[in-house]
C-alpha cells in the first residue's frame, strides 16, 4: 500500500540556489514525525515545498500523497486533498473575520470532498463546531469576530493556525516552527490542541529548531536535517540528545 | 459576528458572467425612439413629448446653449471619444407607467425579474422606481408612506403633480452652468426620482430606483431631486446595469439633495454598468443646520466613471460623509472621490475612499476639501486606500485641499498596497483558488464600507466583486 506522504530524493531550489539536496521521508497517518535542524538547514523550505509555494522549485525527486505525485498540483488542490501547513509567520487579512475565513475555507474543501453533492455547511452547525475548537485552544468567542491575524499576539497567531487545522481536518499536517515565539504556556496550549487532533486519521510532521515542543507532542520518529539532507534519524531519544548536546556533533559527523 | 458570518464569501454562487447575468438585451418594441443626435430640435421634441410647461422647455434650450459653450473637461478621464451625435437622447419604452408589475410590458418586466427587483421590493424596500431607457416604467411606494405625506415618484410626474415644490428646488443645487455634463443633463433630462419627506418622518426601509439601459448607443439622463425636511430621514438606493455592446452608451445624471435642519439622508449607489458605458454624474447635497448627509458610492462597472458626490455644509453643526468604493478592471477607468465644503461653523466631514485596480484598470481618487473663512471648529478626515492586484494596473490620488480658516482639524491619510505572493500562498494553502483568495482579500479590503450597507446590499456588493474577480488572476 502506498504511504500517506512519501518524499523521494527531493531536491529544491530557491532563486537558483539548491537548498534541499536529496531528502527521503515517509509519513503515515497515525504517526508523529519531527524534523529538527539548525538554522539554514532547509526546514522551512521543506515545509513550503510540500504545500507548493511557487518560489520553491523541485528540480529532482517527487512528493507523493497517497501514492500520487502532487508536484503538478497547486497549493489549493493539495489543501483540498488533505494536506495542511501551519505557518511560521501567518499573514493577516484585513476585513476578513476568523469565522468568515474558516467557513469559506471549510466550504472550499467540502466542494472537493462532497464532489457533485456540495452543500455549504449550515451556519448553526458551523458555529457549534467552531466554538468547540476555540474552547479547546482557550480562545474565547469574540476571537471569531476579529480580522484574521490582524493585531494578533504571537500566541494567538499560532493558536489560530491550529484552529484552522482543527476545522479543516487534514490527513497530513505540517507544523512549521509552531513553537517559535511562544512562552511555555503558549507552547502547552498549542500542543494540547494538536494532541487532541491526533489519531489514526492524521499524520503529523513537526518542524522545529528546539526540542521543547516535543516534550508536549511525542514524536514517533525524529529526523535531523543538515544542509539540505537528513543527517541522522532515530526515535524520541534523538531529540533529547540534541537538546543536551546541540547540533555540533551532527554537523561534525556529516562533514 | 452573525452579521459577517451570514455574508460569507459565497464563491460559486456567481459563476455566471456579466454577459449572462446583466449583459442580455431585449428586442426593441418601443412606443417612441428619437433620431440620433443632439440639437435644439431634439430638446424641443423631448419637451413636447412630455407636455412640459414653458419654463421647463426654455430651461432645456438654455441649458443646451450652455453645453455647447463649455469646453470638454480635460482634467480627468478621456472624454474625447464621445460622439454626441451618435447617441439616442430619448427613448420611450412603454406608453404608460405601471403601478403594479402586470402593467409593465412583458419583455421589460422579464428584464427586471432577472435583475431581482420585484423580489427585493417584496422583501426589504419601502418603494421602487424602475427606469428603462429614458423613462420610469414602474413606480410603487408603500401606502403607509403616502399617508404620512412622503412623495416618491418619477421626476417627470413630479413636475406635473407637484409643480410648486418642484420649481422651488429644481436646478438650485446644481445649476446647468455648473459643468458641461450638468448642462447636458439639464437640456435632455428624463426620468429619475423625486422624493419629499415631510418634517419628522422616518422612512424605515430604503427606497430604491433601478436604471436599465437596453438600446445600443443610448443616452440615459435621469434627474433626481430629494428633499428631506426638518428632522426627517430617508435612505435611497440606486442600481444600474446595461447590455454589453461594442459601441458606447452615455449615462449622465444629475442628483440634487437638500437636507433641512436636523434631517438625515443616505444615498447608496451600486453602479454596475457594462464596460461600454460612460458614466458622468454630478451629485450634490446642501446640508442645513445639524443635518447629516451620507453618500455610499460603489462603482464597479462602466468604461469611464467621473463622479464626486459632494456635500455643502451650509448650516452650523452639519455633518457629511462620503464612502466610496471603486473597482477598475481591463479597459476601465474609475475617476471617483468626494467633496466636502465647510461653509458654516462646527461642521464635520469624512471622506473614505477604497479603490481596487486589476488587469490594467485604472482608479483615481479625486477629492476636494474646502473650508471657508468663519467655519471655525470644523473637522474633516480624508482617507484613501488603494489596492493593486497586478503590475499593469494603476492608481492615482488627486486630493485638493483649500482651508481658509485657522481653527480647524484636518486629517489626511493615503495608502497603496498590493496583493503579495506570500499572502496568496497563505490563503490558497487553505484550499481557496487564486481567484477566491484574491476576492477574499478584496472583499476584506472594502469590508469597512460594506458593513455600512444593509445586509442585502452588502451581499450584492460582495457578489458583484466576486463576479469581477473571476478569471482575473492567473
How would you characterize the overall build of this protein?
The complex is a heterodimer of chains A (255) and B (474). Chain A is α/β, with parallel strands linked by helices. Chain A has one domain (5-254): 3-Layer(aba) Sandwich (Rossmann fold). Chain A has 8 helices and 10 strands. Chain A has helices spanning 43-50, 75-81, 98-113, 123-136, 154-168, 184-197, 236-245, 248-254; strands at 5-14, 17-27, 32-36, 56-65, 68-69, 83-86, 172-176, 203-208, 221-226, 229-234. In chain A, the strands form 2 sheets. Chain A has a 6-stranded mixed sheet with strand order 6-7-8-3-9-10, sandwiched between helices. Chain A has a 4-stranded antiparallel sheet with strand order 2-1-4-5. In chain A, strand 9 (221-226) and strand 10 (229-234) form a beta hairpin. In chain A, helix 3 (98-113) packs parallel to helix 5 (154-168) and helix 5 (154-168) runs parallel beside helix 6 (184-197). The longest helix of chain A has 16 residues, at 98-113. In chain B, strand 3 and strand 4 form a beta hairpin. Chain B has 2 domains: 1-26 and 434-474, no CATH class; 27-433, no CATH class. Chain B contains 13 helices and 24 strands. The longest helix of chain B has 17 residues, at 434-450. Chain B has helices at 2-6, 18-21, 40-49, 54-69, 106-114, 117-124, 143-147, 155-161, 163-169, 180-188, 421-428, 434-450, 455-469; strands spanning 32-33, 91-92, 127-132, 135-141, 151-154, 193-197, 207-212, 219-220, 223-228, 233-241, 249-251, 254-259, 264-271, 277-287, 292-299, 304-307, 310-313, 319-328, 333-342, 348-357, 362-371, 378-388, 394-403, 408-418. In chain B, the strands form 3 sheets. In chain B, strands 5, 6, 8, 9, 11, 12, 14, 16, 17, 19, 21 and 23 form a 12-stranded mixed sheet that branches. Chain B has a 10-stranded mixed sheet with strand order 4-3-7-10-13-15-18-20-22-24. A two-stranded antiparallel sheet of chain B has the order 1-2. Chain B has 474 residues and is an alpha/beta fold. Chain B is 25% helix and 35% strand. The chains are: A alpha/beta (255), B alpha/beta (474). The interface between A and B is large, with 43 and 34 residues.
Amino acid at each position: 500500500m502506498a504511504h500517506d506522504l512519501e518524499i523521494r530524493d527531493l531536491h529544491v531550489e530557491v532563486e537558483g540556489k539548491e537548498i534541499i539536496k536529496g531528502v527521503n521521508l515517509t509519513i503515515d497517518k497515525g504517526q508523529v514525525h519531527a524534523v529538527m535542524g539548525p538554522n539554514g538547514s532547509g526546514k522551512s523550505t521543506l515545509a513550503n515545498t510540500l504545500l507548493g509555494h511557487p518560489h520553491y522549485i523541485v528540480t529532482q525527486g517527487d512528493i507523493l500523497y497517497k501514492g500520487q505525485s502532487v508536484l503538478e498540483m497547486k497549493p489549493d488542490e493539495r489543501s483540498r486533498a488533505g494536506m495542511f501547513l501551519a505557518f511560521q509567520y501567518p499573514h493577516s487579512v484585513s476585513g476578513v473575520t476568523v469565522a468568515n475565513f474558516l467557513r469559506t475555507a471549510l466550504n472550499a474543501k467540502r466542494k472537493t470532498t462532497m464532489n457533485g453533492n456540495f452543500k455549504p455547511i449550515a451556519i448553526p452547525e458551523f458555529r457549534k463546531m467552531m466554538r468547540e475548537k476555540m474552547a479547546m485552544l482557550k480562545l474565547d468567542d469574540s476571537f471569531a469576530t476579529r480580522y484574521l491575524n490582524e493585531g494578533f499576539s504571537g500566541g494567538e497567531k499560532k493558536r489560530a493556525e491550529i484552529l484552522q487545522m482543527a476545522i479543516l481536518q487534514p490527513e497530513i499536517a505540517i507544523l512549521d516552527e509552531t513553537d517559535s515565539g511562544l512562552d511555555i504556556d503558549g507552547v502547552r496550549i498549542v500542543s494540547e490542541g494538536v494532541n487532541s487532533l491526533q489519531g489514526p486519521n492524521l499524520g503529523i510532521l513537526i518542524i522545529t529548531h528546539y526540542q521543547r515542543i516535543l516534550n508536549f507532542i511525542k514524536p514517533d520518529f525524529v529526523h535531523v536535517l543538515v544542509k539540505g539532507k537528513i543527517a541522522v534519524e532515530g526515535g524520541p531519544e534523538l531529540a533529547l540528545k540534541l537538546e543536551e548536546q546541540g547540533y555540533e556533533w551532527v554537523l561534525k559527523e556529516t562533514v | 459576528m452573525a452579521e459577517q458570518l451570514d455574508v460569507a464569501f459565497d464563491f460559486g454562487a456567481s459563476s455566471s458572467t456579466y454577459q449572462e447575468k446583466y449583459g442580455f438585451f431585449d428586442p426593441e418594441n418601443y412606443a417612441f425612439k428619437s433620431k440620433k443626435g443632439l440639437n435644439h430640435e431634439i430638446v424641443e421634441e423631448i419637451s413636447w413629448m412630455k407636455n412640459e410647461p414653458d419654463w421647463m422647455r426654455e430651461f432645456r434650450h438654455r441649458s443646451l446653449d450652455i453645453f455647447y459653450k463649455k469646453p470638454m473637461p480635460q482634467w480627468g478621464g478621456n472624454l474625447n471619444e464621445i460622439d454626441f451625435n451618435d447617441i439616442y437622447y430619448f427613448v420611450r419604452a412603454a406608453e404608460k407607467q405601471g403601478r403594479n408589475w402586470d402593467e409593465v410590458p412583458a419583455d421589460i418586466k422579464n428584464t427586471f425579474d432577472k435583475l431581482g427587483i420585484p423580489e427585493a421590493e417584496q422583501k426589504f424596500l419601502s418603494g421602487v422606481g424602475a427606469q428603462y431607457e429614458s423613462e420610469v416604467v414602474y413606480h410603487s411606494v408603500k401606502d403607509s408612506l403616502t399617508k404620512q405625506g412622503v412623495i416618491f415618484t418619477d421626476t417627470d410626474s413630479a413636475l406635473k403633480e407637484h409643480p410648486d415644490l418642484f420649481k422651488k428646488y429644481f436646478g438650485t443645487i446644481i445649476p446647468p452652468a455648473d459643468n458641461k455634463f450638468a448642462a447636458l443633463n439639464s437640456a435632455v433630462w428624463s426620468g429619475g426620482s423625486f422624493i419629499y419627506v415631510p418634517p419628522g418622518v422616518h422612512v424605515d426601509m430604503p427606497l430604491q430606483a433601478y436604471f436599465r439601459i437596453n438600446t445600443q448607443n443610448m443616452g440615459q439622463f435621469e434627474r433626481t431631486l430629494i428633499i428631506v425636511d426638518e428632522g426627517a430621514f430617508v435612505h435611497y438606493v440606486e442600481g444600474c446595469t446595461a447590455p454589453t455592446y461594442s459601441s458606447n452608451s452615455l449615462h449622465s445624471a444629475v442628483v440634487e439633495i437638500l437636507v433641512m435642519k436636523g434631517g438625515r439622508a443616505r444615498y447608496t449607489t451600486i453602479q454596475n454598468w457594462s464596460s461600454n458605458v460612460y458614466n458622468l454624474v454630478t451629485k450634490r447635497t446642501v446640508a442645513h443646520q445639524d443635518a447629516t448627509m451620507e453618500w455610499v458610492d460603489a462603482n464597479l462597472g462602466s468604461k469611464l466613471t467621473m463622479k464626486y458626490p459632494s456635500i455643502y455644509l451650509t448650516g452650523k453643526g452639519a455633518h457629511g460623509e462620503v464612502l466610496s468604493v471603486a473597482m477598475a478592471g481591463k479597459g476601465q477607468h474609475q475617476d471617483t472621490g468626494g467633496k466636502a465644503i465647510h461653509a458654516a461653523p462646527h461642521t464635520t466631514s469624512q471622506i473614505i475612499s477604497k479603490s481596487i485596480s486589476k488587469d490594467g484598470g485604472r482608479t483615481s481618487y479625486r477629492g476636494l476639501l474646502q473650508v471657508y473663512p468663519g467655519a471655525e471648529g470644523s473637522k474633516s478626515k480624508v482617507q484613501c486606500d488603494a489596492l493593486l492586484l497586478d503590475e499593469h494596473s494603476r492608481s492615482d490620488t488627486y486630493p485638493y485641499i483649500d482651508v481658509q480658516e485657522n481653527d480647524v482639524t484636518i486629517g489626511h491619510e493615503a495608502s497603496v498596497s498590493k496583493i503579495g505572493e506570500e499572502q496568496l500562498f497563505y490563503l490558497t494553502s487553505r484550499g481557496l483558488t487564486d481567484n477566491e483568495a484574491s476576492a477574499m482579500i478584496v472583499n476584506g479590503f472594502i469590508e469597512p464600507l460594506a458593513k455600512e450597507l444593509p445586509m442585502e446590499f452588502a451581499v450584492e456588493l460582495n457578489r458583484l466583486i466576486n463576479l469581477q474577480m473571476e478569471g482575473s488572476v492567473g
